[in-house]
Amino acid sequence: MEPVFAQPSPELVDRPVMDQDHYLSGNIWNLESCADDAKSIKRWMVDELGVPKQHIAMLLDERATKQNIEVTLNNHLLHNNRIQKGDAILIYFAGHGSTLKAPHDWLLDGPRRCNVEVLCTYDHDTKGVNSRIAGISARAMHTFLHDLSKAKGNNITLIIDSCFSPPSPDSRDRSSIRWTSTSKAAAEDLYHGSTGHACPRLQKRNESFYSRHRSSHTVITACKPGTTAAEGKDGGKFTSAFLEIMRSAPLHITPSSALLEQIRLKMAHQIPHCSESSDYLFDRVPFSQDPSYIPVLIHNEKGIRIELGSQHGIQKGGEFSLHAHNYSGSRNPTIATVTVQDVYSNWCTVRSKCALSLPRNCWARHNQKMPCACLRKMLHALYSTAFQKASHLPPALSISDIKDSAGKSELIETAEAILASRPLLAPLMK
């Protein structure tokens, strides 16, 4: 099981991801792809949403004990001063779910017994210091998230790739279902928590991870109540579909309900469930406007105009890619590539080799290939000239070092390295 916690990149805050493949108890069936699911969620947050790696806390397998998860929830989220009110918080869990019979004082209105849903930590159903370890119950998690929302705002999303119902007795895919029975932990063990996450007693209702209409947070589960969540070679069925849809949709304008419907269609037989809280994923907070995208103006006489010119390093023959929007973290494929035609001080005109039908509003992004090519040629010429004048020097760097440098920053680093190894280059660079 594992928790991953991330804090916002300018606007995406700390999030916890929990997931686990291996369990301490010999009575619990080990899973195969929960750790990979957690790592995939982390890659998505870092690569697609721009979340800094240091804002993510991830607990895998033996590190994902109940105590470690509770401490991380407190320190990384609740008591984290970097998180501002309204920042987006994501908590992700992948692993087994289970149920226990509730204690007699679980509900206010009588001694009725009911089932309590729990997330199975690495040490679930094993002997602790003072009691058996009973995982993290829905009531304990909701209590924590309620406290977290009071401190950090209600832009909190809990994603669970687990289930709380067993497969049918004749099921052939038992080993791929993210559910396990609890054989040793007792009802009273639900009240034990190491850092204030223990369940409160005598509440009006039996909390469920499927509870709807919460104002403090949104919960997305891999399946509906009474059904099962499965995994395969490519990961959890839900997590795989979730990431595929997240990477293929313009998230800043796609309602959460539409995203969930697309995920459901991908999974076919497994239907995800979502509480009705946020209209858009993370309240659109991570999807800020990216200043590297420049508005495109359609000019009657000049054609397509972009507000960058020679003072910004734009050269005739350079390239721009055109895009439908300017939001980071939201799918934004290139709709056309155009070439710079005329360059002025602070703007330029571009044209396409084929006829374009552009949306009313679109944005351009400068393609850096042309400046890099120019820099590469310059370094090649300087290096060759200097080498002719200092051929007796040992070849610490070869011209292949320049050819193999792909990006502009790498080329600059290569130039500095050449200067360091070829002192005679310095006068030529001035």
TrEMBL record:
Question: What InterPro entries does the record tag this protein with?
Answer: Metacaspase, Pept_C14_caspase
Which spans of this chain does the record mark as coiled coil?
Answer: none
Entry GO CC: cytoplasm
Q: Which domain of life is it from?
A: Eukaryota
- Gene Ontology process terms (BP): proteolysis
Q: Where is the Peptidase C14 caspase domain?
A: 30-276
Task: Please give the Gene Ontology molecular function terms for this protein.
Answer: cysteine-type endopeptidase activity
UniProt lists the family membership as follows: Belongs to the peptidase C14B family.
Q: What's the protein here called?
A: Peptidase C14 caspase domain-containing protein
Source species, please?
Collybiopsis confluens
Species classification: Eukaryota, Fungi, Dikarya, Basidiomycota, Agaricomycotina
